[in-house]
Target: Trehalose 6-phosphate phosphatase
Amino acid sequence: MTNQNVVVSDAASGIGMAIKLAITNSVIYTSSAQKPPPSPGSYITISRKFPKKIETIETGQIPAASKINAWVDSMRASSPTHVRPAASIPDAGDYSSWMLNHPSAIDKFDQIIRASEGKQIVMFMDYDGTLSPIVEDPDKAFMSKEMRGAVRDAARHFPTAIVTGRCMDKVCNFVRLGELYYAGSHGMDIKGPATKTLKYKKNNPPMAFQPAKEFLPMIDEVYKILFEKTKSTEGALVENNKFCLSVHFRCVDEKSWAALAEQVKLVLNDYPKLELTPGRKVLEVRPAIKWDKGKALEFLLESLGYVNSDDVFPVYIGDDRTDEDAFKVLRNRGCGLGIIVSKVPKETSASYSLQEPSEVMWFLQRLVEWKRMSPRGGH
Ligand SMILES: O=P(O)(O)OC[C@H]1O[C@H](O[C@H]2O[C@H](CO)[C@@H](O)[C@H](O)[C@H]2O)[C@H](O)[C@@H](O)[C@@H]1O
Model:
Protein backbone atom coordinates (compact mmCIF):
# COMPACT_ATOMS: atom_id res chain seq x y z
CA MET A 1 0.00 0.00 0.00
CA THR A 2 1.35 3.42 -0.85
CA ASN A 3 0.27 6.76 0.53
CA GLN A 4 1.60 8.80 -2.34
CA ASN A 5 -1.84 9.58 -3.65
CA VAL A 6 -3.14 11.10 -0.48
CA VAL A 7 -4.93 14.33 -1.26
CA VAL A 8 -6.96 14.82 1.86
CA SER A 9 -5.33 14.91 5.23
CA ASP A 10 -6.55 15.76 8.65
CA ALA A 11 -4.48 16.66 11.65
CA ALA A 12 -7.30 15.80 13.97
CA SER A 13 -9.26 12.63 13.50
CA GLY A 14 -12.39 11.26 15.11
CA ILE A 15 -15.65 9.90 13.92
CA GLY A 16 -18.58 12.27 13.79
CA MET A 17 -16.40 15.25 14.64
CA ALA A 18 -17.42 18.51 13.03
CA ILE A 19 -14.66 19.95 10.93
CA LYS A 20 -14.43 22.75 8.48
CA LEU A 21 -13.30 22.10 4.98
CA ALA A 22 -11.64 25.05 3.37
CA ILE A 23 -12.30 25.07 -0.33
CA THR A 24 -9.79 26.86 -2.49
CA ASN A 25 -9.67 26.23 -6.20
CA SER A 26 -11.54 23.02 -5.50
CA VAL A 27 -8.73 21.64 -3.34
CA ILE A 28 -9.78 20.59 0.11
CA TYR A 29 -7.54 21.20 3.10
CA THR A 30 -8.61 19.61 6.30
CA SER A 31 -5.58 20.30 8.40
CA SER A 32 -5.23 23.76 9.92
CA ALA A 33 -1.49 23.55 9.23
CA GLN A 34 -2.10 23.31 5.48
CA LYS A 35 -5.03 25.63 5.21
CA PRO A 36 -4.79 28.84 3.24
CA PRO A 37 -6.18 31.91 5.00
CA PRO A 38 -9.93 31.70 5.30
CA SER A 39 -12.08 33.83 3.09
CA PRO A 40 -15.63 34.62 4.14
CA GLY A 41 -18.24 32.26 2.83
CA SER A 42 -15.75 29.75 1.51
CA TYR A 43 -16.40 27.09 4.11
CA ILE A 44 -18.82 24.30 4.44
CA THR A 45 -19.23 22.72 7.81
CA ILE A 46 -19.76 19.04 7.69
CA SER A 47 -19.87 16.40 10.30
CA ARG A 48 -17.31 13.99 9.11
CA LYS A 49 -16.90 10.29 9.15
CA PHE A 50 -14.27 10.23 6.43
CA PRO A 51 -10.88 8.65 6.68
CA LYS A 52 -7.99 10.91 7.56
CA LYS A 53 -6.69 10.28 4.11
CA ILE A 54 -7.99 8.72 0.98
CA GLU A 55 -5.96 5.60 0.56
CA THR A 56 -4.75 4.11 -2.65
CA ILE A 57 -5.51 0.56 -3.66
CA GLU A 58 -2.96 -1.93 -4.89
CA THR A 59 -3.95 -2.75 -8.42
CA GLY A 60 -1.63 -5.72 -8.86
CA GLN A 61 0.24 -6.70 -11.96
CA ILE A 62 -0.57 -8.18 -15.35
CA PRO A 63 -3.89 -10.00 -15.07
CA ALA A 64 -4.26 -13.57 -16.15
CA ALA A 65 -6.24 -14.22 -19.32
CA SER A 66 -9.08 -15.24 -17.01
CA LYS A 67 -9.30 -11.68 -15.71
CA ILE A 68 -9.59 -10.26 -19.23
CA ASN A 69 -12.27 -12.86 -19.93
CA ALA A 70 -14.07 -11.91 -16.73
CA TRP A 71 -14.14 -8.24 -17.79
CA VAL A 72 -15.39 -9.15 -21.23
CA ASP A 73 -18.08 -11.42 -19.74
CA SER A 74 -19.07 -8.71 -17.31
CA MET A 75 -19.38 -6.09 -20.06
CA ARG A 76 -21.39 -8.52 -22.15
CA ALA A 77 -23.64 -9.42 -19.21
CA SER A 78 -24.45 -5.79 -18.45
CA SER A 79 -25.53 -5.09 -22.01
CA PRO A 80 -29.25 -4.40 -22.22
CA THR A 81 -29.45 -5.68 -25.78
CA HIS A 82 -27.75 -8.97 -25.14
CA VAL A 83 -30.30 -11.75 -24.68
CA ARG A 84 -29.11 -14.20 -22.10
CA PRO A 85 -30.62 -17.26 -20.55
CA ALA A 86 -31.38 -16.57 -16.89
CA ALA A 87 -29.36 -19.64 -15.97
CA SER A 88 -26.18 -17.92 -17.16
CA ILE A 89 -26.46 -15.27 -14.43
CA PRO A 90 -24.72 -16.53 -11.31
CA ASP A 91 -26.95 -16.62 -8.23
CA ALA A 92 -29.51 -14.40 -9.86
CA GLY A 93 -32.11 -17.04 -10.54
CA ASP A 94 -34.90 -16.41 -12.97
CA TYR A 95 -36.63 -13.09 -13.43
CA SER A 96 -39.67 -13.77 -11.31
CA SER A 97 -37.74 -15.00 -8.31
CA TRP A 98 -35.33 -12.08 -8.75
CA MET A 99 -38.33 -9.74 -8.75
CA LEU A 100 -39.47 -11.19 -5.46
CA ASN A 101 -36.23 -9.98 -3.94
CA HIS A 102 -36.08 -6.74 -5.93
CA PRO A 103 -39.71 -5.72 -6.40
CA SER A 104 -40.74 -2.86 -8.61
CA ALA A 105 -40.38 0.50 -6.84
CA ILE A 106 -43.58 1.49 -8.63
CA ASP A 107 -45.58 -1.46 -7.34
CA LYS A 108 -44.19 -0.91 -3.86
CA PHE A 109 -44.44 2.87 -3.92
CA ASP A 110 -46.69 3.06 -0.84
CA GLN A 111 -44.38 0.77 1.09
CA ILE A 112 -41.41 3.00 0.21
CA ILE A 113 -43.29 6.11 1.30
CA ARG A 114 -44.21 4.49 4.62
CA ALA A 115 -40.56 3.63 5.23
CA SER A 116 -39.57 7.26 4.62
CA GLU A 117 -42.09 8.64 7.11
CA GLY A 118 -40.71 11.45 9.28
CA LYS A 119 -37.45 11.56 7.37
CA GLN A 120 -36.00 13.84 4.73
CA ILE A 121 -35.90 12.08 1.38
CA VAL A 122 -32.68 12.80 -0.51
CA MET A 123 -32.57 11.70 -4.13
CA PHE A 124 -29.42 10.35 -5.81
CA MET A 125 -29.49 9.35 -9.46
CA ASP A 126 -27.04 7.97 -11.92
CA TYR A 127 -27.18 9.49 -15.42
CA ASP A 128 -26.59 7.00 -18.26
CA GLY A 129 -29.15 4.22 -18.35
CA THR A 130 -31.07 5.83 -15.48
CA LEU A 131 -32.06 9.30 -16.66
CA SER A 132 -31.14 8.79 -20.31
CA PRO A 133 -31.53 5.69 -22.44
CA ILE A 134 -28.40 3.78 -23.45
CA VAL A 135 -27.39 4.78 -26.99
CA GLU A 136 -24.47 3.92 -29.25
CA ASP A 137 -22.88 7.36 -29.29
CA PRO A 138 -22.02 8.56 -25.75
CA ASP A 139 -22.20 12.16 -26.93
CA LYS A 140 -25.84 11.68 -27.89
CA ALA A 141 -27.13 10.30 -24.59
CA PHE A 142 -29.62 13.14 -24.16
CA MET A 143 -32.29 13.14 -21.51
CA SER A 144 -35.81 13.92 -22.61
CA LYS A 145 -37.55 17.20 -21.84
CA GLU A 146 -40.08 15.30 -19.72
CA MET A 147 -37.31 13.63 -17.71
CA ARG A 148 -35.65 17.01 -17.14
CA GLY A 149 -38.97 18.33 -15.89
CA ALA A 150 -39.37 15.38 -13.53
CA VAL A 151 -35.86 15.85 -12.11
CA ARG A 152 -36.44 19.61 -11.77
CA ASP A 153 -39.67 18.99 -9.87
CA ALA A 154 -37.98 16.44 -7.63
CA ALA A 155 -35.22 18.95 -6.83
CA ARG A 156 -37.85 21.49 -5.78
CA HIS A 157 -38.94 19.17 -3.01
CA PHE A 158 -35.92 17.08 -2.11
CA PRO A 159 -32.16 17.59 -2.17
CA THR A 160 -31.28 15.90 -5.46
CA ALA A 161 -27.92 14.75 -6.75
CA ILE A 162 -26.68 13.23 -10.00
CA VAL A 163 -23.85 10.75 -9.40
CA THR A 164 -22.19 9.70 -12.64
CA GLY A 165 -19.11 8.40 -14.40
CA ARG A 166 -19.34 11.34 -16.80
CA CYS A 167 -17.16 14.38 -16.26
CA MET A 168 -18.80 17.37 -14.62
CA ASP A 169 -18.99 19.51 -17.78
CA LYS A 170 -20.66 16.80 -19.81
CA VAL A 171 -23.24 15.84 -17.24
CA CYS A 172 -24.09 19.48 -16.55
CA ASN A 173 -24.56 20.02 -20.29
CA PHE A 174 -26.86 17.04 -20.55
CA VAL A 175 -28.92 17.79 -17.43
CA ARG A 176 -28.91 21.61 -17.48
CA LEU A 177 -30.39 22.07 -14.02
CA GLY A 178 -28.56 24.45 -11.68
CA GLU A 179 -30.47 23.38 -8.61
CA LEU A 180 -28.86 19.95 -8.34
CA TYR A 181 -25.82 18.52 -6.61
CA TYR A 182 -23.47 16.85 -9.08
CA ALA A 183 -20.85 14.17 -8.49
CA GLY A 184 -19.01 13.59 -11.76
CA SER A 185 -16.15 11.21 -12.61
CA HIS A 186 -17.61 8.47 -10.39
CA GLY A 187 -17.86 10.84 -7.44
CA MET A 188 -14.37 12.33 -7.84
CA ASP A 189 -15.69 15.76 -8.81
CA ILE A 190 -18.43 17.06 -6.54
CA LYS A 191 -20.19 20.40 -6.57
CA GLY A 192 -23.26 21.86 -4.97
CA PRO A 193 -26.16 23.72 -6.58
CA ALA A 194 -25.61 26.98 -8.37
CA THR A 195 -29.00 28.14 -7.12
CA LYS A 196 -28.55 30.13 -3.93
CA THR A 197 -31.59 29.16 -1.90
CA LEU A 198 -33.57 25.98 -2.17
CA LYS A 199 -36.87 25.21 -0.54
CA TYR A 200 -35.53 22.50 1.75
CA LYS A 201 -32.50 24.43 2.92
CA LYS A 202 -32.09 28.01 4.07
CA ASN A 203 -28.46 28.32 3.08
CA ASN A 204 -26.57 26.47 0.44
CA PRO A 205 -22.94 27.07 1.18
CA PRO A 206 -20.60 26.65 -1.78
CA MET A 207 -19.43 23.10 -2.01
CA ALA A 208 -16.79 21.41 -4.08
CA PHE A 209 -14.64 18.35 -3.61
CA GLN A 210 -12.06 16.74 -5.88
CA PRO A 211 -10.28 13.91 -4.08
CA ALA A 212 -8.27 12.78 -7.13
CA LYS A 213 -6.98 16.11 -8.35
CA GLU A 214 -3.37 15.01 -8.46
CA PHE A 215 -4.28 12.34 -11.01
CA LEU A 216 -5.24 14.84 -13.70
CA PRO A 217 -1.88 14.84 -15.56
CA MET A 218 -1.72 11.05 -15.42
CA ILE A 219 -5.25 10.66 -16.74
CA ASP A 220 -4.51 13.05 -19.60
CA GLU A 221 -1.34 11.15 -20.46
CA VAL A 222 -3.12 7.78 -20.43
CA TYR A 223 -5.96 9.24 -22.51
CA LYS A 224 -3.51 10.16 -25.26
CA ILE A 225 -1.83 6.75 -25.16
CA LEU A 226 -5.11 4.85 -25.19
CA PHE A 227 -6.43 7.01 -27.99
CA GLU A 228 -3.38 6.14 -30.12
CA LYS A 229 -3.37 2.44 -29.22
CA THR A 230 -7.08 1.88 -29.84
CA LYS A 231 -7.64 4.01 -32.93
CA SER A 232 -7.02 1.08 -35.27
CA THR A 233 -9.80 -0.94 -33.59
CA GLU A 234 -12.97 -0.24 -35.51
CA GLY A 235 -15.68 1.24 -33.31
CA ALA A 236 -13.45 1.72 -30.25
CA LEU A 237 -13.79 5.05 -28.49
CA VAL A 238 -11.92 6.56 -25.58
CA GLU A 239 -13.86 9.15 -23.61
CA ASN A 240 -12.07 11.59 -21.32
CA ASN A 241 -14.10 12.03 -18.17
CA LYS A 242 -11.51 14.27 -16.51
CA PHE A 243 -10.61 12.12 -13.47
CA CYS A 244 -11.46 8.87 -15.28
CA LEU A 245 -11.49 7.48 -18.79
CA SER A 246 -14.02 5.26 -20.51
CA VAL A 247 -12.94 2.85 -23.24
CA HIS A 248 -16.12 2.08 -25.15
CA PHE A 249 -16.70 -1.37 -26.64
CA ARG A 250 -20.32 -0.89 -27.74
CA CYS A 251 -19.53 -0.36 -31.42
CA VAL A 252 -16.66 -2.86 -31.53
CA ASP A 253 -17.24 -6.33 -32.98
CA GLU A 254 -17.56 -8.68 -29.99
CA LYS A 255 -14.88 -10.93 -31.48
CA SER A 256 -12.37 -8.12 -30.92
CA TRP A 257 -13.36 -7.37 -27.33
CA ALA A 258 -10.77 -9.61 -25.65
CA ALA A 259 -7.95 -8.18 -27.78
CA LEU A 260 -9.08 -4.61 -27.05
CA ALA A 261 -9.34 -5.31 -23.32
CA GLU A 262 -5.85 -6.84 -23.42
CA GLN A 263 -4.53 -3.75 -25.19
CA VAL A 264 -6.04 -1.46 -22.56
CA LYS A 265 -4.64 -3.56 -19.76
CA LEU A 266 -1.16 -3.54 -21.32
CA VAL A 267 -1.20 0.26 -21.24
CA LEU A 268 -2.41 0.23 -17.65
CA ASN A 269 0.43 -2.06 -16.58
CA ASP A 270 2.67 1.02 -16.65
CA TYR A 271 0.26 2.87 -14.38
CA PRO A 272 -0.20 0.89 -11.17
CA LYS A 273 -1.92 3.87 -9.55
CA LEU A 274 -4.82 3.46 -11.95
CA GLU A 275 -7.36 0.66 -12.01
CA LEU A 276 -9.79 -0.81 -14.51
CA THR A 277 -13.42 -1.65 -13.88
CA PRO A 278 -15.97 -3.04 -16.33
CA GLY A 279 -19.31 -1.31 -16.99
CA ARG A 280 -21.97 -1.45 -19.69
CA LYS A 281 -19.86 -2.28 -22.75
CA VAL A 282 -17.18 -0.05 -21.31
CA LEU A 283 -13.93 -0.40 -19.38
CA GLU A 284 -13.44 2.45 -16.95
CA VAL A 285 -9.94 3.67 -16.05
CA ARG A 286 -9.91 5.24 -12.61
CA PRO A 287 -7.46 6.43 -9.97
CA ALA A 288 -6.91 3.55 -7.57
CA ILE A 289 -8.08 5.43 -4.51
CA LYS A 290 -10.71 4.41 -2.02
CA TRP A 291 -13.29 6.77 -3.38
CA ASP A 292 -16.35 5.80 -5.38
CA LYS A 293 -20.03 6.60 -5.82
CA GLY A 294 -20.73 5.22 -2.34
CA LYS A 295 -18.21 7.56 -0.75
CA ALA A 296 -19.64 10.44 -2.79
CA LEU A 297 -23.11 9.61 -1.47
CA GLU A 298 -21.82 9.67 2.12
CA PHE A 299 -19.97 12.92 1.48
CA LEU A 300 -23.08 14.57 0.07
CA LEU A 301 -25.30 13.35 2.89
CA GLU A 302 -22.91 14.65 5.50
CA SER A 303 -22.42 17.92 3.65
CA LEU A 304 -26.17 18.34 3.66
CA GLY A 305 -26.09 17.87 7.41
CA TYR A 306 -27.62 14.41 7.55
CA VAL A 307 -25.21 12.68 9.84
CA ASN A 308 -27.89 10.86 11.72
CA SER A 309 -29.38 8.01 9.75
CA ASP A 310 -32.67 8.45 11.62
CA ASP A 311 -33.34 11.82 10.01
CA VAL A 312 -32.77 10.99 6.41
CA PHE A 313 -34.08 8.64 3.76
CA PRO A 314 -31.65 8.52 0.83
CA VAL A 315 -32.95 6.96 -2.37
CA TYR A 316 -30.27 5.97 -4.89
CA ILE A 317 -31.30 4.96 -8.42
CA GLY A 318 -28.72 3.48 -10.78
CA ASP A 319 -28.17 0.84 -13.42
CA ASP A 320 -24.45 0.13 -13.50
CA ARG A 321 -21.86 -1.83 -11.57
CA THR A 322 -20.36 1.38 -10.21
CA ASP A 323 -23.72 2.16 -8.59
CA GLU A 324 -23.35 -0.95 -6.47
CA ASP A 325 -20.90 0.93 -4.21
CA ALA A 326 -23.70 3.35 -3.36
CA PHE A 327 -26.28 0.56 -2.90
CA LYS A 328 -23.88 -1.14 -0.47
CA VAL A 329 -23.42 2.02 1.56
CA LEU A 330 -27.19 2.34 2.01
CA ARG A 331 -27.51 -1.32 2.89
CA ASN A 332 -24.69 -1.09 5.45
CA ARG A 333 -26.06 2.11 6.97
CA GLY A 334 -29.47 0.50 7.14
CA CYS A 335 -31.13 3.64 5.88
CA GLY A 336 -32.90 4.60 2.69
CA LEU A 337 -32.92 2.29 -0.29
CA GLY A 338 -31.27 1.41 -3.54
CA ILE A 339 -33.22 0.98 -6.76
CA ILE A 340 -31.57 -0.81 -9.66
CA VAL A 341 -32.65 0.02 -13.20
CA SER A 342 -32.66 -3.25 -15.09
CA LYS A 343 -34.87 -5.41 -17.24
CA VAL A 344 -32.86 -8.51 -16.45
CA PRO A 345 -31.86 -10.17 -13.18
CA LYS A 346 -28.54 -8.83 -11.90
CA GLU A 347 -26.42 -9.40 -8.84
CA THR A 348 -27.14 -6.28 -6.83
CA SER A 349 -27.26 -4.78 -3.36
CA ALA A 350 -30.26 -2.68 -4.36
CA SER A 351 -33.57 -3.63 -2.77
CA TYR A 352 -36.01 -2.45 -5.43
CA SER A 353 -35.98 -2.27 -9.21
CA LEU A 354 -37.26 -0.20 -12.10
CA GLN A 355 -37.06 -1.45 -15.66
CA GLU A 356 -35.92 1.59 -17.62
CA PRO A 357 -35.57 5.39 -17.56
CA SER A 358 -39.26 5.91 -18.36
CA GLU A 359 -40.10 4.09 -15.11
CA VAL A 360 -37.55 6.23 -13.26
CA MET A 361 -39.40 9.28 -14.56
CA TRP A 362 -42.71 7.87 -13.46
CA PHE A 363 -41.32 7.13 -10.00
CA LEU A 364 -40.01 10.70 -9.68
CA GLN A 365 -43.34 12.16 -10.81
CA ARG A 366 -45.20 10.02 -8.33
CA LEU A 367 -42.86 11.06 -5.53
CA VAL A 368 -43.42 14.75 -6.32
CA GLU A 369 -47.17 14.24 -6.53
CA TRP A 370 -47.16 12.52 -3.14
CA LYS A 371 -45.07 15.34 -1.65
CA ARG A 372 -47.41 17.99 -3.03
CA MET A 373 -50.42 16.19 -1.57
CA SER A 374 -48.81 15.51 1.79
CA PRO A 375 -50.22 17.44 4.77
CA ARG A 376 -47.12 19.60 5.19
CA GLY A 377 -47.50 20.74 1.62
CA GLY A 378 -44.19 19.81 0.15
CA HIS A 379 -41.89 20.48 3.13
O1 LIG B 1 -22.36 6.51 -14.09
P1 LIG B 1 -23.10 6.66 -15.38
O2 LIG B 1 -23.85 7.95 -15.48
O3 LIG B 1 -23.98 5.48 -15.67
O4 LIG B 1 -21.97 6.69 -16.49
C1 LIG B 1 -21.29 5.48 -16.83
C2 LIG B 1 -20.77 5.59 -18.23
O5 LIG B 1 -21.89 5.97 -19.02
C3 LIG B 1 -21.67 6.27 -20.39
O6 LIG B 1 -21.51 5.06 -21.08
C4 LIG B 1 -22.69 4.30 -21.13
O7 LIG B 1 -23.71 5.03 -21.85
C5 LIG B 1 -23.38 5.31 -23.23
C6 LIG B 1 -24.48 6.19 -23.80
O8 LIG B 1 -25.74 5.61 -23.66
C7 LIG B 1 -23.21 3.99 -23.98
O9 LIG B 1 -22.88 4.24 -25.33
C8 LIG B 1 -22.12 3.16 -23.30
O10 LIG B 1 -22.01 1.88 -23.91
C9 LIG B 1 -22.43 2.97 -21.80
O11 LIG B 1 -21.36 2.32 -21.14
C10 LIG B 1 -20.50 7.20 -20.56
O12 LIG B 1 -20.25 7.37 -21.95
C11 LIG B 1 -19.29 6.76 -19.81
O13 LIG B 1 -18.27 7.71 -19.94
C12 LIG B 1 -19.68 6.64 -18.35
O14 LIG B 1 -18.58 6.32 -17.56
Q: What stands out?
A: The longest strand covers residues 18-24. The mean pLDDT is 81. The chain has two domains: 90-211+291-373, 215-287. Residues 126-129, 134-136, 138, 141, 164-166, 239, 241, 246, 248, 250, 279-282, 284, 320, 322 surround L263DTV3 (CB under 6 Å).
